[in-house]
Amino acid sequence: MKNKLHLTLLSALLTLSSFIKSMGPQPQQQLSSAQIVERLVAKKEEELKARYKPEEILVPPGEELETFDPVAYSAKAIQQEVKTIKCLYQQFEEQLGKGNKFLPTYEVAGSLSYAMPIDEIIHTVKTKFKEMHKNNQIITKNEFQTLDPNKWYNKGENLTRIWGAEYLAKRGYNVPKYIIVVDDPNNIKIKIVLRIGFPSIEYIENGTVYAEKIIGEPAAADVRPIGSDHGYTDYSDSGNILRTQDDSLYFVDTEYKSFYDARPEPHIFEGIGQWQKKSDYLKERFELINKIDGTNKIIEFSVLAP
Q1: Which of 10, 56, 179, 239 lies at a C-alpha separation of 20 to 30 Å from 233?
Q2: Sign (positive/negative) of CA torsion 64, 69, 72, 76?
Q3: Please, how many CA atoms are within 13 Å of residue 237, restricted to the half-sphere of its CB?
């Protein structure tokens, strides 16, 4: 009788297991705003405990060495900071709930934001590269061999040179043309770097960025006051801007690091300290929700797929 019952239960469990598998992958349960705040505050609390080690705390001014209790002092300091952090995080979550994403996207790093869900980021990257392929900005090595190699510079894997050039071109400035040369357009591998303040579409893992060769004289030192709408700040090398024979100016070094003044400006918010806290919070929130452990995420796709 017992054996029969065990077999019946086993059969039921196997049937249930088969049914669940037939339904395919189940959606992950989303965290509520309260749960997000709770987990991020707990993470900060652990960081504070590592900072406020009782054995490393010096006697503060106004305290007597004989009566000073480093354990109690450490616990109180942590408690106060946790309370402040929790209040701040709750405010950030409330603003997110109202659709306030805090930070504009950073165009010269690929126009992504930590307020974007991971699915939206992946979709944005795929759409961007498929559009580039349609415009012949992504070509194969065989196709590249049909071009004159003397007209192109190998710029390595850094994609932000392209985004920086696009940013300047929209504002009417001259920039080189860029292309990406790949082995197989069906296998594009892109590295998203999770920087403080913004995610960056930064590297192509299995391709090479090429820039049109611009012939001219170094002119960055001569044109520094050119204007403020471009946010370009990389004048340390005069060759970053070239003056051609027809007196045209070309920005030829356009990676994201060259555009510090084009980043989201802290004064839009409550000052640079608050801006930094919001930037850090969005990054940690993004990593928590999307279960990302590390400083980058690899996205693989085909630019030929529909």
Answers
A1: 179
A2: positive
A3: 9
The burial class, CB within 10 Å (0-12 / 13-18 / 19+), for 285 is buried
Q: How far is CA 267 from CA 119, 228, 272, in A?
A: 30, 16, 7
Question: What DSSP character marks residue 250?
Answer: E
Are 194 and 218 spatial neighbours (Cβ–Cβ below 8 Å)?
no
d(CA 19, CA 220): 66
The 10s digit of each residue's pLDDT in 282-292 is: 889 889 988 88
- Total-model pTM: 0.77
Domain ranges of the chain: 33-58+68-97, 107-266+293-301
Q: Are 129 and 138 in contact (CB under 8 A)?
A: yes
Residues 105, 112 contacting (CB under 8 angstroms): yes
Joined tokens for residue 105? 């996207």
| 195, 153 Cβ separation under 8 angstroms | no
Angle at which helices 272-289 and 70-97 cross, to 10° = 80
- Using one digit for the tens of pLDDT, what is the confidence trace for 206-216? 999 999 999 99
Reduce the DSSP state of residue 243 to 3 states and report it.
Answer: strand
